[in-house]
Design a protein that fits this description.
InterPro entries: SPOR-like_dom (IPR007730), SPOR-like_sf (IPR036680)
Strand order of the largest sheet: 2-3-1-4
Protein name: Beta-lactamase
Strand content: 15-25%
CATH architecture of one domain: 2-Layer Sandwich
Order of helices and strands: HEHEEHE
Pfam family, one: SPOR
Structural class: alpha+beta
GO molecular function, one term: peptidoglycan binding
């Protein structure tokens, strides 16, 4: 480090005379700056337990078998039924076909199937739900009918 100030040197007023044949050596004491340092006592280190490693990517547990027909979330409010079929796959296919034929009309609607029994036979209703009012469902159904898609509005 470089010093902040130039060290002060006292001048020696003694002048050597010509008589003195020995060389004069002046001893200059070095200037030492003393800084006060605060001493702090440090407590003895206690043993720290090693960090535990947690697996970041755990394998997900297998999902229990779920019947999607009976446990599917059904939108509340009003819905439009567009088909009914004895096979769920046919009802789902009709939902896909209808949403492709009228994407603007059904943009905010959610397609779903609902199972029901009639004379010991299970049928699946193909519906679009999420309409906030009877008028909204009827207006959407009217727009579908203009596209030659049969439907009717039902309250969930």
């Amino acid at each position: 480090p470089t010093p902040d100030e130039k060290p002060a040197v006292e001048e020696d007023t003694t002048v050597a005379s010509a008589e003195d044949s020995a060389p004069v050596v002046e001893e200059i004491a070095p200037v030492v700056q003393i800084k006060k340092v605060k001493t702090v006592a440090v407590a003895a280190a206690t043993e720290v337990p090693a960090p535990q490693v947690v697996a970041a990517y755990a394998e997900p547990a297998p999902a229990p078998a779920v019947d999607p027909v009976n446990t599917a979330s059904v939108p509340s409010g009003w819905a439009i039924q567009v088909a009914s079929s004895p096979k769920q796959s046919e009802a789902q296919a009709f939902l896909d076909k209808t949403s492709k034929q009228a994407p603007k009309v059904l943009a905010d609607a959610a397609g779903f199937t609902v199972a029901f029994d009639k004379d010991g036979v299970t049928y699946y209703r193909a519906r679009f739900g999420g309409f906030g009012s009877k008028d909204a469902a009827w207006n959407a159904c009217s727009a579908l009918k203009k596209k030659k898609i049969a439907c009717y509005a039902v309250q969930q």
